[in-house]
UniProtKB/TrEMBL annotation:
It comes from the Bacteria. This is SDR family NAD(P)-dependent oxidoreductase. InterPro entries: NAD(P)-bd_dom_sf, SDR_fam.
Length: 236
């Protein structure tokens, strides 16, 4: 790492993985740009982290907004070295009960937003000859349940899109990878919903963030494309 602090952008910052990503990369010396549709949580997290964190309000499903926001980040902080696409749009329901607008929003956030963000950062990464794009995936991308018509289909498309990005960008020195989340992330709302589950049942967001940081640090001769994150005791 050189004397200039590298820049890490996190799309979809909430109290789980997004916040953990922000804290981990800030602790590693990155300037972190926190993006979320609602400003309140990002503002408070940026204040907690300190001078290296900057909050931006943006709907990742709006490609014009994404382009404008990344231009602001580049102007304020410099070229992006790491992009963590954590925005997920967890919209649940079967194909008959879902509002079509909600179905579309899931695809916009998971896929269209990823394309827009990757387009925004790839030119600088290509010029630098290095960079990382890490996508937070889900095992729903491999199977569709009745109530995951929007989420599973969008995550499946996202996984295929991420592989397409990897095959195009790896030769340019840009490491594209995905973390397949297989488990329940430890959040206040999930603890409320599952009060009888032990600590070992949940995925710790800080440990997921450590996986993301490990991916960013991997040597080029042994890059990983897809890693899975699940609690050690889960039956799979």
């Amino acid at each position: 790492m050189n004397n200039v602090q590298p820049v890490c952008v996190i799309n979809g910052v909430g109290p789980g993985n997004g916040a953990a990503f922000a804290r981990r990369f800030a602790a590693a010396g990155y300037r972190v740009a926190l993006i979320a549709r609602s400003a309140d949580f990002c503002d408070s997290l940026a204040a907690e982290i300190g001078d290296s964190a900057h909050a931006y309000q943006c709907d990742i499903g709006d490609p014009t907004g994404v382009s404008e926001t990344f231009a602001r980040i580049r102007e304020a902080l410099g070229p992006v070295e790491v992009l963590l696409h954590n925005a997920g749009a967890g919209i649940w329901g079967d194909f008959e009960s879902l509002e079509l607008s909600a179905f579309e929003q899931s695809w916009r956030v998971n896929t269209l937003g990823l394309v827009a963000a990757a387009r925004a950062v790839a030119p600088d990464m290509r010029r630098a000859g290095h960079g990382s794009i890490v996508v937070t995936g889900a095992t729903a991308s491999r199977r569709g349940a009745a109530k995951t018509a929007a989420f599973a289909s969008a995550k499946g498309a996202q996984r295929n899109l991420t592989e397409s990005l990897a095959k195009q960008l790896w030769p340019d020195g840009i490491h594209v990878s995905t973390i397949m989340i297989d488990g329940i992330v430890d959040l206040p709302r999930t603890r409320e919903r599952l009060p009888d589950k032990p600590d070992t049942f949940f995925l710790d967001p800080d440990d997921v963030a450590e996986t993301a940081y490990w991916l960013v640090q991997q040597p080029r001769s042994a890059w990983s494309f897809e890693v899975e994150a699940r609690p050690f005791g889960e039956s799979w």
